Amino acid sequence: MIDFLKKTNINEDILIEIIKNNNPSALSSLSINEDECIKIINYMKEIGFTCIDELLINRIDLFLSSFDKFIKKLSKFNIPVLVQLVNTDYATIDIINE
């Protein structure tokens, strides 16, 4: 169902953790949103996020929106500072929803 994440170099162990830590409806939504999810992951890599695995495991909701909505949320912030904060503690990503 979420094997498409391998296209973004998410390994099998992380896929198992994503499945274990998220409910079936979230996983289904993720697979339906495959193209947008891949865009979000690739963008996150481009700007320097290193905690994408943790975010997929623990904050799958970030990857369920459209790429445009995700970018709009991030645009309110100084991107390098946000990336540094989130890479230090992935839970700080919550500030994008405030």
Q: How is this structure best described in words?
A:
This protein has about 100 residues and is mostly helical. The protein contains 6 helices and no strands. The chain has helices at about 10-20, 25-30, 35-45, 50-60, 65-75, 80-90. Helix 1 runs parallel beside helix 4 (about 50-60). The longest helix has 14 residues, at about 35-45. It is globular and about 35 Å long.
- Percentage beta strand: under 5%
Extended strand count: 0
Rounded radius of gyration (Å): 13 Å
How widely separated are the two ends?
31 Å
H and E string: HHHHHH
Unreliable sequence segments: none
- Which structural class should the secondary elements be placed in? mainly alpha
How much helical structure, as a percent, in the residues? Answer: 55-70%
Tally the helices: 6
Task: Summarize model confidence as the mean pLDDT.
Answer: 96
**Oligomerization state:** single chain
In the residues, how many domains can be counted? 1
Overall, the morphology is globular
| Sheet with the most strands, sense and barrel status | none
Reconstruct the topology from this structure.
Elements: H1 12-21, H2 24-32, H3 34-47, H4 52-58, H5 67-74, H6 79-88
Helix pairs in contact: 1-4
Compact summary:
This protein has 98 residues and is mainly α.
Structure keywords:
98 residues; mainly alpha; 59% helix; globular
